[in-house]
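Can anyone check this?
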Amino acid sequence: MIRLNNNIEIPQIGVGTWTLHGDTAQRNVCLALEVGFRHVDTAQMYENEAEVGQGLLDSGVPRQEIFVTTKVNTNVMRNGRETVRKSIDESLAKLKVDYIDLLLIHWPVKDCVKDTWQVMEDYVRQGRVKSIGVSNFNRHHLDDLLSYAEIRPVINQIEVHPFMTQEENIAYNRQLGIQVEAWGPFGQGDIDVVGHPLLQSLAAKYQKTTSQIVLRWIVQRGLITIPRAKPNHFAENLEIMKFSLSDDDMQAVSSLNQNLRSNVLNDPESFPW
């Protein structure tokens, strides 16, 4: 568990649901909870909140034991405060929950962050959202937000993998008391992270999979992460809490950094959506 700046705790490893839809999303979320995961990440943009919500119910796990994250869509932000409010209400209904554990701004939409953030703060005061944070924010985005925020963001969810280590961004977030959550730990399949010879050699050394080496490198840095919910990897992902990488091997993985995004369009300064 990682303690956030509002004293709420979040499980350090969860399950992501990007690209999962229909029965697959519902089933995978249910199975993940049944095997022991307690942190589920979705977003309005994924268009699967209803299926994720049904998976939460199907699991039979008590609501208070599950940490649920969703994110406000970019087009919702562009349409103003009332549209943001409506979208949050819809997320609560689709997820079939009385409260959202963590609500994020999905991308730093220019000139729309302040209105969205202030609506999100209202939902925290109402008790319908427990924590609020951001995703894909760079340093200047955070500085601007903190100039008016009455509630400090608890998390910044950013792209982190061995080819995109984000060391400066992570250090600045920590300076501000904001935890960092890593999305795309394997490069989302667009770049071959797990195929790198160094990671393969470390997998052989530790008798683990290359994916486990990557996830261990992330959590050992004190980051939260949400690899996609794939049932054949659930047990494997949970096993990362049972071994450690040496300091030298941690540094070796970090040395693979190329500041390489899995998709060039994922730049927070110029994203097209």
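Reply from J.R.: I decoded it. The radius of gyration is 18 Å.
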